[in-house]
Structures are given as structure tokens and as C-alpha cells.
Amino acid sequence: PMVSLPGAGAARAALEKCPQVVVSDCMARTDTLELAHIALPAAAWGEKDGTVTNSERRISRQRPFFALPGEARPDWWIVSEVARRMGFTEAFGYTKPAQIFREHAALSAFENDGTRLFNIGAYAEIPDTEYDALPPVQWPARKGETTDSTRLFADGRFPTPDGRARMVAVAVQEVRQQDPAWPLLLNSGRLRDQWHTMTRTGLSPRLSRHSPEPTVDVHPRDAQGHGLTDGALAQVETPHGFSLYRVRVSEAQRRGELFAPIHWTDQTSSAGRTGMLAQPLCDPVSGQPGFKATPARVRPVEARWSGFLITRTEVEPEGVLYWTRARLAGGYLYELAGDAELASLAERVLPEEGELMEALDGGRGSARWAVLKDGRLDACLFVATDNSLPPREWLVRQLEKSAEASPLALLAGRPARPEPDRGPVVCVCFDVGLKTLVGAIADQLLTSVDAVGAALKAGTNCGSCRPTIAKLLTPLKETSHAV
Q1: Nearest-angstrom CA–CA distance, 134 and 114
Q2: Could you tell me which residues come within 8 angstroms of residue 242 by beta carbon, excluding any fewer than 6 positions away?
Q3: How far apart are CA 75 and CA 81, in angstroms?
Q4: Which residues neighbour 185 within 8 Å (Cβ) at sequence distance 6 or greater?
Q5: What is the Cα–Cα distance from 95 to 88, expressed in whole angstroms?
Q6: d(CA 264, CA 212)
Q7: Contacts 24+ apart (CB under 8 A), 437-442
Q8: Is there a contact between 236 and 216 (Cβ–Cβ < 8 Å)?
Q9: pLDDT tens digit sequence for 291-332
């Protein structure tokens, strides 16, 4: 909640005033846990035993496929233990999930004459053996009834006194403020390869590579009007807070609006916390927060230098204007920008042990350091005042290699023998870059996403890159139709 709530800055300030904060979580490091006096280690999804209900009202029996790690315990066990020690032993005498499911089913039918649609009273007395083997079922499942519940309201009756539906008139509210101080609207949302606050998905090296930094999408005309350039830093400000982002100029972005992803936290970046920018307004009926249209403004942020750090160990890059951390298979990638003195930065973030090499070019404003241990890359730091930095991909792969690396190649940031430029990673599952895709589509005359998958495997695993591949194919299809 310290990341994802709208107006998250106010929520954080409120929790900081609480004399005792108890947090139950399956992750050891989150922004909310930073404020906890008591941390309760909860079981993660794949470690839980119970049921889960999806949006089509289907209840599925969930069985754990991982053992509970360390001190982690199921949510029901944690709540029960707290309740018992508060004196409610009799009411929380559960020893297994089946008991809770039976009570849940009985309560759904209690004093329920049809005014509440949710009713699974048919399972109020389900034996343990049947619960363990429970197949997926849909609610309602009323006691004594065997009717098919695939569709609700198929009989034309609704849970109202006369059985007729009630239509609710919705008034559309104007969201744009007529205030020239806030000329833009900030929209927020998910990126393709992340989920919510990146607390868990941010641990995946593959998912982190596709979007290693928090970005703000800006239409070219808005970028020009506000002095923004692609790849530079910008500060996005709303009446509720401000944060820094890497600018991404895009024709796909609607004019007059900005888009920023929601995933970055204090654990993964010094900036990019979008929740603190959103207006703390909620829909009066659904309760949905107003994440999609917050009055905002944007301005460029100048840094004396920009750079990146690739390292096997996690560090705290204090004293810099901007940093983000992305997980790699062999360590971490930090994107950096700031005004701090470079020598002191290198001393803070590079390992103390190992063979240190450096290449300093004061005239061109470039500085590069590399640390070797047993001939292998342990860390490297590249900074430049003109953003003339090499691609990260080849250096990243050096962390995963067991062979000794060439010192000159490491400081150059590229192999002695040039490798094909694959471009930005599109398919993270099979590490396929944009230029590789475009080249294969043109050379092999590929005309479908499945054909691309057969040639390069791209899009054949999780499928999240398939829409991007389809867009690459669109110009070719239009050309073939014209011919």
C-alpha cells in the first residue's frame, strides 16, 4: 500500500505516525515493511493450501507445490495464532483449511433467503476427503439444489424484492482541471512484464530486462513544448508529489497526456513511485481510485553525468540524483545519473577487493572502471557527461560467463570481435532482440506471429511479446496486400 495507493505519500506519512504497525507479507523487503514494527512471514501463492475463486465465480481447490520456507506460515494460521493469544481460542480453533471452508460455506447460506447471490451452502458439511478431492465448482451452490450455475439471471430474476433488475444511472465527471499550472493529465498502469509493485516480478532477471527503468511516455509535440528529449530525465509533478522518470517520446502517446508505469518502489529505484502522484479520489460506487487522469506538469531535469553500474552484489548508490536497480542472472544493473564527484562514486559502489582497472578521459567527460576477480568481471562502472555510453547487453553477459574476460574489451564495453546488434530485447523468454526480429521477418518473408515463433522461438512461451511481433508484421502485410 505504500507504493500502490493513490496519494501514497499521505498514506506513508500516516503509517509513520502509528505507534505499532504489523505487516504480513511473503516478501522480506517492501516499502511497507520498512515501516513495520512487527513482520509476520506469510506463505506465497504456490505454498498455500485452500481454495481460490476466479472472476467467473469458479471455486478451485488449490494445493501447494512448494514447501513452506523458513518461518513462513499460511494466512489462516497467522490470524488464528494472533486471535488465540488475544483470548479468542474457541472461535479460532482451526487446524486445517477444510474447517474454514465449511464455516465459510455455512455462513454463505445463513439467513440467506435469496437476497444474497453468493451461496455455497451445499458444501457446509463437506467431509475432509471430498474437500481434498474437490473439483472446480461455480457458485451459487445452494444446499439441496443441483441446478447448473454457469450463468446467473438466466431465469430472468434478480436479487431484489420484486425480482426485477435495477438500472443505475452513472454521471460522467469532468477530470481535467481548468488550471494552466497543470496543463497535462497523468495516466498510469502496468507494463507488459511486471505485476503491481515489482515486489516479486522484479526479482526475475528476464522480466527486468525488458523495461529496466521507470519511464514517462510523452507525445513528440508535448515533448517539444516542454523541452524534453528522448532518453533524458524529467520530473513529473502533480498536486500530490513529484518523481523522476526517463523520457520516452512516442507517437503512440496521446497528446496532452503522460503515461507512467506503477511498478517501481524505494527498493528498486530512487524515483519512479507513481502511486504518490495519483490523486486520492475514489469512485463513489465502485471505490476504484482515480489513477487514470491526474492533473500534472513535466519539466526536464539536467544531470552533469549519466551512467550505469553492473555488479554481482547489491549496493546502495547514495548521493546520486537518480538510480534504478534491475535484476540480472549474474547480479544487478544500475542506471545512474547525478552531479556527484565521480571518484567518490566509484569508491562507494565498486567492490573493495579485486583488480581495479580504469580509463579516464577528462577531455571527453568519460570515466570507466572495471573490477576483476580471478580474471572474471565482478563489477564495472561507466559514466559520461554526454551520454555516450555503450550498450549494456554484452557487459551483462560477462557476469554469467566463467571464462576470463579481456580487460581492454571490458573497458571498451564491447568484444574484440564485433557482435551483431540485436537491438532492445522484445522476447525476454528466448532473449530475442528487435533488430533480430526485423531482420528475420525481412529475410525469411515471415508473415505471421506463428511463423516468427517457428523461426526464432519468439512468442512461443509466455506470449506477452506476441502483440509487439504482430505490430512488426503489420507493414509487411500492408505491402503484400498492395502488391
Answers
A1: 25
A2: 235, 236, 277
A3: 10
A4: 175, 176, 256, 257, 258, 293, 294, 295, 296
A5: 15
A6: 10
A7: 437/469, 437/472, 438/472, 441/472, 441/473, 441/476, 442/476
A8: yes
A9: 888 999 999 999 999 999 999 999 988 888 999 998 888 899
- Res. 149 pLDDT band, cuts 50 70 90: low
CA–CA gap between residue 337 and residue 373 (Å, rounded): 27
Distance between alpha carbon 369 and the CA centroid of its chain, in Å? 31
Angle among Cα 124, 129, 130 to the nearest 5 degrees reads 50
> What digits encode the pLDDT tens for the residues 94-108?
999 999 999 999 999
pLDDT of residue 32: 92
Asked if the model's pLDDT at residue 481 lies above 50, the reply is no
Decide if 34 contacts 226 (C-beta within 8 A): no
Residue 122 has pLDDT above 80, yes or no: yes
* Amino acid code (one letter) for 44: A
Q: What is the pLDDT of residues 151-165, one digit of tens each?
A: 888 888 888 888 899
- CA-CA distance, 330 to 357, in Å (whole number)? 20
Q: How far is CA 40 from CA 24, 73, 79, in A?
A: 4, 9, 10
CA 324-330-332 angle, 5° bins: 10
Which stretch of DSSP H or E encloses residue 437?
Answer: helix 434-444
Helix (H) or strand (E) holding 134: none
